[in-house]
């Protein structure tokens, strides 16, 4: 259950309308690293969190704050669109011929679809995509992604501040900068807490016993004259464990050659016949292959090695 209050978390009062800037502001609302993304990402991570208590509460607290940030920025955008599209565009174009040339790139959906309000899109009008969010159920992996999301979002806000001289807009975005700064720290501190509580050693290393151990501490260089060996990432001790990092020339580690099986004749791929006839990929064939795989697994369980 979520409760709503009419007060915004911070003011969102531009000094004057600016329809073109409103189009730019769409990026930090509905873009890949916009507020809609972190809002949905954190809420989904919080709902999926299987560790009740401080972790789940922290994730949902930040996610709930982000709901308010979406409301705050969409309100700012609606106020920037006051009088748009006709009056604001006409006045801006009359004052600045260069601006008139780019006004055609403004998102017309703000007027046609949403009635002078923000859209759940980026600055080019591309709809927000649920594929932007990450919620894996693994808190270490998710927290690391959250740091990156906040860093990218903050970078975009910083660029937007440089594109306006409106003091009201700057005040709103200065608040967004501050929250993005602290949210980066919250996720980094969350990772420290995960390590302290024994949930991780700081790396995502599930099924570590099944790793190809020799390849877990090598930097492979794939171009001549690389200076990558000068960096910490290519020398010294590994961050976890007591292995020494090695720098080596990139090379084939096994004798597997990039060759493909014969194609399904019903797919009409160009083929010279060198691999023999291909297997027809019918629905019946797929079921038969699945049954064959199950029989093979059962046999391995009953008579391993035979």
From TrEMBL:
InterPro entries: Ferritin-like, Ferritin-like_SF, Mn_catalase, Mn_catalase_dom. One of its GO terms (molecular function) is metal ion binding. It comes from the Bacteria. Pfam families: Mn_catalase. Binds 2 manganese ions per subunit. Binds 1 Ca(2+) ion per subunit. Keywords: Calcium, Manganese, Metal-binding. Its cofactor is Mn(2+); Ca(2+). Ca(2+) binds at residues 57, 61, 225. Residues 263-290 are annotated as: Disordered. The keyword Calcium applies. The keyword Nucleus does not apply. Gene3D superfamilies: 1.20.1260.10. Mn(2+) 2 binds at residue 66. Residues 275-284 have a biased composition (Gly residues). Mn(2+) 1 binds at residues 35, 69, 150, 183. Belongs to the manganese catalase family. This is Mn-containing catalase. It comes from Nocardioides cavernae.
């Amino acid at each position: 259950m979520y409760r709503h209050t009419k007060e915004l978390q911070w003011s969102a009062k531009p000094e004057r309308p600016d329809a073109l800037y409103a189009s730019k502001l769409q990026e930090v609302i509905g873009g890949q690293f916009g507020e809609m993304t972190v809002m949905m990402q954190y809420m989904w991570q919080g709902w999926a969190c299987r560790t009740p208590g401080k972790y789940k509460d922290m994730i949902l607290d930040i996610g709930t704050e982000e709901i308010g940030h979406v409301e705050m920025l969409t309100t700012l955008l609606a106020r920037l669109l006051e009088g748009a599209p006709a009056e604001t565009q006409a006045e801006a174009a009359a004052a600045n011929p260069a601006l008139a040339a780019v006004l055609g790139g403004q998102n017309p959906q703000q007027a046609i679809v949403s009635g002078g309000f923000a859209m759940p899109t980026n600055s080019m009008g591309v709809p927000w995509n649920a594929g932007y969010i990450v919620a894996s159920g693994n808190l270490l992996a998710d927290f690391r992604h959250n740091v990156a999301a906040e860093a990218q979002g903050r970078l975009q806000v910083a660029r937007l501040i440089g594109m306006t001289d409106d003091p009201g807009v700057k005040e709103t975005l200065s608040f967004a900068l501050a929250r993005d700064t602290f949210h980066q720290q919250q996720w980094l501190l969350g990772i420290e807490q995960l390590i302290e509580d024994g949930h991780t050693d700081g790396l995502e290393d599930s099924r570590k016993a099944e790793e190809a151990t020799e390849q877990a501490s090598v930097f492979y260089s794939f171009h001549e004259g690389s200076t990558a060996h000068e960096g910490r990432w290519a020398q010294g001790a590994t961050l976890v464990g007591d292995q020494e990092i090695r720098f080596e020339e990139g090379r084939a580690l096994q004798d597997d050659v990039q060759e493909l099986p014969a194609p399904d004749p019903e797919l009409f791929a160009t083929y010279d016949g060198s691999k023999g006839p291909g297997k027809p990929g019918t629905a019946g064939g797929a079921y038969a292959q699945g049954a064959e795989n199950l029989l093979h697994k059962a046999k391995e369980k009953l008579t391993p090695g035979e």
